[in-house]
Amino acid sequence: MNNVQDESLRERKKLQRRALLIQIARRLIASKGLRSLKVRDVAEAADCAIGSVYNEFGDFDGLILTVNRETVQALTARLAAVPADDPRRQLHGLAAAYLAFATEHANLLRALFEHRMENDRPFPEDILLMVMDAFALMHAPLVRLLPERDGEDIALLARMMFSAVHGIISLGLEERMVAVPPQQLRERLAQFIDTHLAGLGVPRE
To answer: Which of 32, 42, 133, 179 to pair with 165, CA 20 to 30 A apart?
Structure first.
């Protein structure tokens, strides 16, 4: 085996180890929550040294952030698949898709919003932008429903509306506080959207 083949083999093994570490971290977060995640558990499950985790991701934050990036990418893909033929139905579909994702991946979604960087370091800008891009999916249907509104006003309305949807879902699924059955939660989300649109002057169909 020549040097090029050696290097290629090492690179493949490095990529495989990285993928395995991400897979294990995602599984542990999904099953037990972010607060229960320990670097030692990830390393043991991957049959590697703790130092290997740090070498691959820089620090434990780096591993968590990688999982969070994948979570927001999956969420955005789910939301982007909502049909856009009718703006009101699209808004309802976005809320329903968000609820479905949150129900299926509750701990992963919590990790996305609850993770705090060590030593009060700033949160990575790219993840913030990814989340904002997901929230911005409510912008296009609101433009169609409110054609006379200023663009900046619509952008703010879209962020506020998605923030409200996120809050309703987060609290509704919180078992320790005010858990609401998913079907009832979906009905309340639909009611909220219709009521909010009515308040903005959008007539009911």
So the answer is: 32
Distance between CA atoms of 174 and 176, rounded to whole angstroms? Answer: 6
Amino acid at 106: A
Rounded Cα distance between 193 and 88, Å, is: 9
Say what angle helices 60-80 and 87-104 make with each other, to 10 degrees. 140
Q: Which long-range contacts (CB under 8 A, 24 or more apart) does 174-183 make?
A: 182/99, 182/103
What is this structure's pTM? 0.88
For residue 80, the enclosing domain spans: 67-205
Q: In terms of C-beta density within 10 A (0-12 exposed, 13-18 middle, 19 or more buried), how is residue 85 classed?
A: exposed
Position 88: which residue type? R
Other CB atoms within 10 A of residue 182 CB: 15
**Are the beta carbons of 115 and 65 closer than 8 angstroms?**
yes
> How far from 168 is each of 70, 75, 144, CA to CA, in Å?
23, 17, 24
Residue 184 CB contacts under 8 Å (≥ 6 apart), including other chains: none
Q: Are residues 53 and 74 in the same domain?
A: no
Count of CB atoms within 10 A of residue 28's CB? 19
Which pLDDT belongs to residue 123?
85
CATH code for position 198: 1.10.357.10
